[in-house]
Amino acid sequence: MDTRAETTVEDHEQEHDQNQNQDPRSPESDASTISCPNSPQQGPTGDEEHAATAELASIQEELQTVLEYVDHGMILKSFDALSRLTDIAVTNCEKLGLASDGGAIDQKAGFWTGLNNCWLFAFSHYGNARSEDQRVREHHLHHLHNNVKAWADALEKYGLVNYELGLWEQDILEAIEVCLINTSVFATTMPATPSSVADADGTDKDDNDDEQAE
Known about the structure:
With 214 residues, the chain is mostly helical. It has six helices and no strands. The protein has one domain (16-213). Helices cover 50% and strands 0% of the residues. Residues 1-51, 192-214 are annotated as: Disordered.
């Protein structure tokens, strides 16, 4: 990401000047140091912009919950929530004002930085599941790989890929591939995309059961 400037992710309970020397892309910190930016201030600028601001604030609040999931070892749940929130942001990119040139650039940059760092933070802790049912497995990672590629394809027309304003596709895919290397050999073909991360292996299991029954 040659053209993207590094920015700092603000802690939602601290002032920006307390964190200005922090590297926002470092996944080594705990959730308190890679929390999401402050919710943007709402102003009397019209119903649509007011609704978009409220929606962005809601997503940012949920990202804080995702970080808590990671800290408590609820890894699979954190990826499910992250996938849902990212899908909302991508699907409603124009409605949320993320694709336009207007509005506060700092707020948009803060939103994308917070979202991207949540992904990197979660992947840096993917092996810290507190229980087997929260463990991220190879098919989950393939599913996430598919999702990230699809989101990047959707955002490409807005120029919101691999820049400060947008999805850090390259960084996130590299994080996924590192996780895959640590679990198994990266497959060249991806499985069919399931409805959620947690259900990523449901279809294949049912098909295998049917074949065994025959």
